[in-house]
Amino acid sequence: xxxxxxxxxxxxxxxxxxxxxxxxxxxxxxxxxxxxxxxxxxxxxxxxxxxxxxxxxxxxxxxxxxxxxxxxxxxxxxxxxxxxxxxxxxxxxxxxxxxxxxxxxxxxxxxxxxxxxxxxxxxxxxxxxxxxxxxxxxxxxxxxxxxxxxxxxxxxxxxxxxxxxxxxxxxxxxxxxxxxxxxxxxxxxxxxxxxxxxxxxxxxxxxxxxxxxxxxxxxxxxxxxxxxxxxxxxxxxxxxxxxxxxxxxxxxxxxxxxxxxxxxxxxxxxxxxxxxxxxxxxxxxxxxxxxxxxxxxxxxxxxxxxxxxxxxxxxxxxxxxxxxxxxxxxxxxxxxxxxxxxxxxxxxxxxxxxxxxxxxxxxxxxxx
Length: 368
What we know:
single chain; 9-stranded mixed β-sheet; 3-stranded antiparallel β-sheet; globular
């Protein structure tokens, strides 16, 4: 059977962070039950199209799935298990924020229902940095949530961190990295803060100090070095894991695997088409199935995507496939931005910092 990933978008948050540009809604708890019902209907309607596929990853993202509540999450997973062919060893993840993931009875219910991976939004170990971007948890909450998840039986835990936060320094970033590693997660994601237009943080940016591009580069390289020293191997630009604990769901995106998305704003890549649901909760609840995009992907586009995504991975791409771009890559290697290792071209951590430019040059050399 072909493999398939499912992404289920939960668009509810207790409060919205100052930097957030994802489709999420705060103070909308009264709509959660209606959304759960509409989501179940959407899953049941889509299931026949996935006949012949084995679902090997399921990812509940958001928003804040943990704020949606264990009872609703368990019911949705039960629908998935009843309607789709879920592989016995499927990776089943839910995202959580620390303040809503400390109830051990709720966590045990999730574990018992089949969830086996938690992605926790730590972001920083500095309470001042957290407050500056509207996070409502503390560093203590993170430790409490990790402890509760472990006691509930979760042995696959990921922590998200953000670098480039307002007033962040190299010292405070290193403290956050050390605090994260001390909690012994199996996986870490380290993302650069991007100030999106129209967000509250964008409206305040003239009044705050944000690390500039050079400072962000230093923070990124600090993370790569520190995590390597602590046995977290970098396998993608922003992601690090203990051996065998890479995010299987995210690897599906990066290796052009097929996936179906459910919920407003969710994206899909299935049956040779890429499509996305409109970022509109009302339309979703009405069952209108509105799409913000829907297009067939040509072989040429796929090939260009494969190069782009492959060079974002630490393993890189087979050198023979990139032969027409060898001069570009050798030039990058001379500047410490790329390396040819065991017959594969891959970008170095320094190369990842300018990956967009390198990938564009490689694609042009390959005729895309």
